[in-house]
Amino acid sequence: MTGSGKPSGGILEWLAIRNAVEKLGAQRVWSDALSWTRFTGSLALALLVLLCLTGVFMAFNYTPVPGTAYDSVDFAQFSLPFGGLIRGVHHYAWNLLLMVMGLHLARALVVAGYQPPRELTWISGLLIMLFIPVFIITGDLLPWDQKGFWSTQVRTSIMGSVPVAGDWMVRLLQGGPRTGIVALTRFYVLHLLVLPGTLLLLVGLHFHFVAHRGVSEPLFSTRERRQVSLFPTMVNRWLLLLLIITVALGAVAYLWPVPLGDPADPTDSNYIPKPEWWVLFLNQLVAIFRGPLMVLGTAVIPGALAAGLMVLPFIDRGPERHPLRRKAMLTVIAAIGLVLLVLSIMGYLEHYGPPPA
Amino acid sequence: MDENREAATGGQRYTDRRGFLKTVVLAGTTLATAGIPLAAYFVSPALEKGGGRWVDFGAVADLNDGETAMLSFEYMVKDGWQVLPQRGFVWARRGPGEAVKVMSSTCTHLACNVIWKPERQVFECPCHTGIYDAEGRPISGPPARPLAVLEHKIEDGKLQVYLTA
Fold first, then answer.
1. pLDDT for A320-333, tens place per residue?
2. CATH number, position B132
3. Closest-CA residue in chain B for A275?
4. Phi/psi of residue A165, each to 5°?
5. Quick one: A29-274 is in which CATH superfamily?
6. Which of B13, B66, B84, B156 is deepest in the core (most CB within 10 A)?
């Protein structure tokens, strides 16, 4: 099947997809939709595909039962061919996905990609970003190792400290007061069934708006924009990206195998869960605001940040897109970004730096 | 001509509205019929109360006067469809005299386990360096509330502590 030639008719007619195929074959997209200056969205999609693939195959050797869960992950990682590699790619893929989504967001902020008519592209993208941590939180518990178990204790405790709804949210999420077999089953079903379904919907929505509102015009390029066919030109470009990232993550997972910690032990008070890099700023916020002010760090400030990003397209409506002509907006964004970076560094030093003398 | 069109669209709208109302009623009824049992099924495990019990920690005489001791416990709890040992520990301090104070090991900040540091006579939470004094009052770090004091009684020289969840 080629994109340029006419579909032969016979089999497509028989499958009743001739119209759809012809429409798809005629689809043209801007050449810079996936290029050296714009690739974070395509890369994020490639990573999601990889996460989905590795995740489905990991599920073939997993049982969501405390204790046994650990044994199943241990078996898959160390006794099955490519087991360590598959888990490693899954692990590195979500870490990279967070970074890539951060870049994707930063780019849209700098070049004002959120401005009308792309408000809904922006909002659907934000929803995806806010959604990914739920994946991480539910996935972290699944190996039933020390890190996952104790991180879950800290997270549910933070969630539980939110006034009024907090305790309820935790109980509903865990299916009771403790992190046991009911909680693990819930996390498992959320991670493998409910969340992927919802994510598919959100990604579909994002692409719907990208397709209908287009990608933002390049700001810095003087070359004339041209269009290429979606299939095969753009699809091939993306497949090449997928291939490269698959090999790269495979190599990383091979060279730096993802460790599997000790089995979860709820009595082991010596285990100190360290917050992961992407959550250090939140952890620091939680540590800064104490007592009655704690809700500021756990709910108010993160909520305000998310809400601020959501309404951004309705505040900065354009038409000025060039960063140098949006100095006020970019100063605010840079200041917030700097605060988050400083909080992250403080958190890093506290949890990973040399112990205080 | 215009009147005709109006009448036509008006009539069209009327039948559309009937059809739409039917859809709403049917979908709503289906949603409620299926939704109530499904929601109850999902929510009910969350409603289960932890419940409490008296746990025997052995002879009070084993505790040295003026010292803070880690007392480990293990009892069976029902977790959904599984009965599992629940393990953990509490901190008990004896003295002066016969007085005993039993404190939860759960940090009031984010529920990490606090550890007694005998050389400095403080409880320390390893997660965010919260410090409590020997009586469980917060001194420094994020915690704002003191460690929970657990109800206890002494029967036949044995220390019994009431543990929840």
1. 888 888 999 999 99
2. 2.102.10.10
3. B127
4. -85, -15
5. Cytochrome Bc1 Complex; Chain C (1.20.810.10)
6. B84
